[in-house]
Amino acid sequence: MESPDLAAEKQRKIIHVDMDAFYASVEQRDNPDLRGKPVAVGGARERGVVAAASYEARKFGIHSAMPPVTARRKCAELIFVKPRFEVYREVSLQIRAIFADYTPLIEPLSLDEAYLDVTANLKGLPTATAVAEEIRARIRAETALTASAGVSYNKFLAKLASDHRKPDGLFVITPKMGPAFVETLPVGKFHGIGPATSAKMNRLGIYTGLDLKAQTLAFLRQHFGKSGPYYHSIARGIDERPVRPDRVRKSVGGENTFFDNLHDRQAMHEALAGIIDKVWRHCDKAKVRGRTVTLKLRYQDFEQLTRSRSLPHAIGSQDELERVSFELLDALLPVSKGVRLLGVTLSSLDEDGPEPDVQMQLAL
C-alpha cells in the first residue's frame, strides 16, 4: 500500500485563473466614462448577443448570450460597446506571459481563463496559494485588471474554487475539504454539467453533490453513458486529468447573426458560404482537418436547430465542406419563419492529418 508521504508527494497543485468580466473590464479600463456603469460588450444593432457583461450589468440579471432586446428591458441604462477582440487577445497574451514565469504547464481554456500546474513552480514559492496570490497581484499591476483564482489538488476543484469568491477573489480547497465541499454544491454548479444534464439529474432525484455521490457507477453509466465515470469521480472530489499545455483544439467554427432575417435558399447559401470560407481559412492556417460537420440554425424567435454529419475521412477541401454544409441546410428548407443566425463547426479534428487521397475524393 502506498505510504501517506508518497501520496502527498504525488499530489498535484493546480491553479485555475479566471479574469473577472474580462471583455467588459477591458472596456471599462480603457474608457473611464464606463467605470461603475452597466456595460455589455456586443452589438446592440447587429442583432447579436451579449458577449460579456460588467458586474454592474450583472446585478440586473444580464449575462452572456442574452439578446440585446432582453438586456435593454432589464436595464434601460445599459451601455453597449462593440467588441475589440484584437485588444482582448493582446491582454490575454500579457497574462499568459505572467503565467509562464511560474510554470510551463499552462492549459488555456479561452482568452480569459487557464489551468496552471504549479506542483513544481519556477519561482520556488512554498505553496500554490503563494503562487496564485503573486500572479493575481502581477495581473493587477501590469494590466490594471482583476482576476479570481482557485487553488486545489485537481482541475475540477480548482475551477469550483475560482468561482467561489468572484470577483477579485482567491479560494483554496484542500484535500481534507474537497469531498465535503463537493457534497454541498448543487450539481448545476459543477463544471462539465450543463443546464440540460443538470435538469436530467434533477429528474432522477440528483440535486447536490451528495445526491450524485449516492449513485452507483452502473446507474450513472446507464443514464449518462461515457460521462458516467467522470460524474462518479467528481462527486468524490476525484479528477485525474492532467493540465495539458498542448491541449488539442476540439473544433473550428464560425457563425453570423444577420441584421435582416433570411427566408430564401439562395440568401442562406450565400451567407453560409462566407462563414465556411472563414472556417476553412482557419483550418488551413492551423493545419487541421475534421470529419464532422455541424450546422447551426437559429430562427427569429430564437428556436435553434443543429444538424451534424460525420464522414469516414477528414474533409479535404473547402468545396467538400461547403457541399456537406449545404446539404445539411437544405434538409431544413423551406423555412416557415425567418432565420437570424447560421453557423458551421468542423470537429473530430486531426491535427496535421493527411488529406484524403484522390481515390477517396473521386469516390464522393
Summarize the structure in short.
The record marks 23 as: Substrate discrimination. The protein is α+β, with helices and mostly antiparallel strands. It is built from 15 helices and twelve strands.
What can you see in these coordinates?
With about 375 residues, the protein is α+β, with helices and mostly antiparallel strands. It folds into 4 domains: about 10-20 and about 85-170, Alpha-Beta Plaits, CATH 3.30.70; about 20-85, MutS, DNA mismatch repair protein, domain I (3-Layer(aba) Sandwich), CATH 3.40.1170.60; about 180-235, DNA polymerase, domain 1 (Orthogonal Bundle); about 250-364, DNA polymerase, Y-family, little finger domain (Dna Ligase, domain 1, 2-Layer Sandwich), CATH 3.30.1490.100. It is built from 15 helices and 12 strands. Helix 7 (about 155-165) links the parallel strand 7 (about 145-150) and strand 8. The chain is globular and about 65 Å long. The N and C termini lie far apart (about 55 Å). Mean pLDDT is about 90; it is low at about 1-10 and about 350-364.
